[in-house]
Predict the 3D structure of the following.
Amino acid sequence: MNSFKFSPILKVFCPLFIGLMFQTGSSQEQAPNFWSHVRFGGGLGLSFGNEFFSATVAPSAIYEFNEQFALGVGANFTYNRQKNFYKTTIVGGSVLGLYNIIPQLQVSAEFEQLNVTRTFESDLMIPDDTYWYPALFMGAGFRNGNFTIGIRYDVLYDEEKSIYANAWMPFARIYF
């Protein structure tokens, strides 16, 4: 059984962001000020085809330090099934950094750590597999208010273990 080991990136950013989330002060003015900088968003995915089904729920939250820079965390749950072949359950989290070079251009970095469990149902005698998969995405996108659309690249992409079809992928991001 694989044991989870925190990556150096998570060891730095998780305590930093959690500390910001639970920042308290003696005055009541600080609490509304903190929450006025928090934005919530995420993604939902649904895919189905010839005996295939996939669903994803990926909520996230960011803290906007100013108009240019934000840090956040996210969670991911994905379920895939190809009838009479395999089932995959994916659970994990991410740390996200956003930087707006100008109001319309946003660059991002996101470290994602996913636990992948694959169970094969076919007669091909493929062994079941459970493993942790890291991804480090660098992205750029066009931003219009709370909505950003762009492309990102996984610099840690491993064709054999990745849950993604390739290292390049489009994204759409919205925060309220």
The chain is about 10% helix and 60% strand. Confidence is low (pLDDT under 50) at residues 23-28.
